[in-house]
Design goal:
Belongs to the UPF0166 family. It holds the Pfam family DUF190. With about 100 residues, the chain is of the alpha+beta class. The chain has one domain: 2-Layer Sandwich (Alpha-Beta Plaits). Helices cover about 25% and strands about 40% of the residues. The protein is built from two helices and eight strands, in the order βββαββββαβ. The strands form three sheets. Strands 4-7-1-8 form a four-stranded antiparallel sheet. It has a two-stranded antiparallel ribbon with strand order 2-3. Strands 5-6 form a two-stranded antiparallel sheet. The longest helix is centred in the last third of the chain and has 13 residues. It is globular, with a radius of gyration of 15 Å. The two termini are about 20 Å apart.
Length: about 100
Protein backbone atom coordinates (compact mmCIF):
# COMPACT_ATOMS: atom_id res chain seq x y z
CA UNK A 1 0.00 0.00 0.00
CA UNK A 2 0.98 3.59 -0.41
CA UNK A 3 0.32 6.19 2.22
CA UNK A 4 2.31 8.30 4.61
CA UNK A 5 4.17 8.20 7.86
CA UNK A 6 2.64 10.78 10.16
CA UNK A 7 4.68 11.58 13.25
CA UNK A 8 3.70 13.88 16.11
CA UNK A 9 6.23 15.31 18.57
CA UNK A 10 5.17 16.52 22.01
CA UNK A 11 6.14 16.14 25.65
CA UNK A 12 4.51 14.63 28.70
CA UNK A 13 3.35 17.94 30.22
CA UNK A 14 1.68 19.34 27.07
CA UNK A 15 -2.05 19.07 27.61
CA UNK A 16 -5.27 19.35 25.65
CA UNK A 17 -8.06 19.90 28.12
CA UNK A 18 -7.54 17.58 31.07
CA UNK A 19 -5.21 15.05 29.43
CA UNK A 20 -1.76 14.93 27.86
CA UNK A 21 -1.72 15.73 24.11
CA UNK A 22 -0.19 12.32 23.36
CA UNK A 23 -3.02 10.50 25.16
CA UNK A 24 -5.61 12.69 23.45
CA UNK A 25 -4.12 11.96 19.99
CA UNK A 26 -4.01 8.22 20.69
CA UNK A 27 -7.69 8.38 21.74
CA UNK A 28 -8.61 10.17 18.52
CA UNK A 29 -6.65 7.58 16.51
CA UNK A 30 -8.75 4.83 18.16
CA UNK A 31 -12.03 6.72 17.61
CA UNK A 32 -11.24 7.15 13.91
CA UNK A 33 -10.56 3.42 13.61
CA UNK A 34 -6.95 3.96 12.57
CA UNK A 35 -4.72 0.98 13.30
CA UNK A 36 -0.97 0.91 13.73
CA UNK A 37 -0.04 3.85 15.96
CA UNK A 38 3.06 3.58 18.16
CA UNK A 39 3.92 5.92 21.02
CA UNK A 40 7.60 6.30 21.91
CA UNK A 41 8.98 8.06 24.96
CA UNK A 42 12.37 9.69 24.70
CA UNK A 43 15.00 10.58 27.23
CA UNK A 44 15.94 13.94 25.75
CA UNK A 45 15.03 16.38 23.01
CA UNK A 46 15.54 19.96 21.85
CA UNK A 47 12.49 21.97 20.82
CA UNK A 48 11.94 24.54 18.06
CA UNK A 49 13.40 27.38 20.15
CA UNK A 50 16.45 25.40 21.25
CA UNK A 51 15.24 24.50 24.75
CA UNK A 52 16.38 21.12 26.06
CA UNK A 53 13.68 18.79 27.38
CA UNK A 54 14.64 15.66 29.29
CA UNK A 55 13.13 12.95 31.46
CA UNK A 56 14.71 13.31 34.86
CA UNK A 57 14.77 10.88 37.75
CA UNK A 58 12.20 12.75 39.85
CA UNK A 59 10.39 14.69 37.13
CA UNK A 60 9.02 13.25 33.88
CA UNK A 61 6.92 16.28 32.89
CA UNK A 62 9.27 17.33 30.09
CA UNK A 63 9.79 13.81 28.75
CA UNK A 64 9.73 13.91 24.92
CA UNK A 65 7.02 11.81 23.25
CA UNK A 66 6.68 10.74 19.63
CA UNK A 67 3.59 9.17 18.03
CA UNK A 68 4.26 7.39 14.74
CA UNK A 69 1.59 6.17 12.33
CA UNK A 70 1.90 4.37 8.96
CA UNK A 71 -1.47 5.18 7.42
CA UNK A 72 -3.29 6.01 4.21
CA UNK A 73 -3.43 9.61 3.04
CA UNK A 74 -7.19 9.67 3.72
CA UNK A 75 -6.66 8.53 7.31
CA UNK A 76 -3.95 11.16 7.78
CA UNK A 77 -6.27 13.91 6.51
CA UNK A 78 -9.10 12.78 8.80
CA UNK A 79 -6.80 12.82 11.84
CA UNK A 80 -5.23 16.17 10.96
CA UNK A 81 -8.72 17.65 10.43
CA UNK A 82 -9.74 16.59 13.96
CA UNK A 83 -6.56 18.05 15.46
CA UNK A 84 -7.06 21.32 13.56
CA UNK A 85 -10.72 21.54 14.61
CA UNK A 86 -9.71 21.11 18.27
CA UNK A 87 -6.97 23.77 17.93
CA UNK A 88 -4.35 21.42 19.38
CA UNK A 89 -0.84 22.85 19.08
CA UNK A 90 1.49 20.00 18.12
CA UNK A 91 4.45 19.67 15.75
CA UNK A 92 4.24 16.95 13.11
CA UNK A 93 6.02 15.56 10.08
CA UNK A 94 4.45 13.72 7.16
CA UNK A 95 6.11 11.98 4.27
CA UNK A 96 5.11 9.40 1.65
CA UNK A 97 5.83 5.73 2.30
CA UNK A 98 5.01 2.26 1.04
CA UNK A 99 3.84 -0.18 3.69
CA UNK A 100 2.48 -3.69 4.03
CA UNK A 101 2.70 -6.96 5.91
CA UNK A 102 4.97 -9.90 5.06
CA UNK A 103 4.70 -13.52 6.08
CA UNK A 104 1.86 -15.86 7.05
CA UNK A 105 -0.68 -15.37 9.83
Amino acid sequence: MRGCQLTFYTQQNHRHGHQPVADWIMGEVRQLGIRGATLFTGTEGIDHVGKRHAARFFELAEQPIEIVLAITDDEAERLLDVIRAEHVRVFYTRFPIEFGTLGDG
